[in-house]
Amino acid sequence: MPYSFRRPSLRRMAKIVDLASVGAAFLTALVISSRSFTWPSVEELLLSRIKLLNLLILLAYLAFCLLVFSSHGFYSHRRSLRWGERIGRIVSAVVIIVTPIVLLREPLYLSFANDPFVFIFGFVCFYVLASGHELSRTLLYFSRLHGKYLRNVVVVGEGQRAARLSAQIEEQTGLHYRVLRVITIKETEA
Description:
The chain is mainly alpha-helical.
């Protein structure tokens, strides 16, 4: 999700979407690496047993993913980052979240985590996260062009200079600023 969410509800939604993206990448990699392209029936799903330990491991892994995403600045203001830097952060985050699967597949007997699964999971996870983040940045950019989610600015200056500066800020919509007020300072004569 975009790097400039300031509202807590939007930030929570971005976190949920990112975790859902990791879950979708995990399931996609699981299906592709198992070479079983048929979905189980409802009966098979209801008869399958899920161990409590596996559920706890999954929840811990998702919490770890959320921690990695937050530490890589996925939910903070990063408007000035270039495309390559944004992609680099996503690659770094994906490498870090794939590493525990590689390291713990033997001690925890993760039979599904073979080499094709790890490669597919990393690739799909990167693709889904990168495309989601870039799409949300584009949508945020276009919404700002239409006057939504602008940053508020107060211009402090002297008479005409302050008025000209505020007019320039208002004219340049690419800056994504809204001038709330112009405060003029009168020079004190000594």
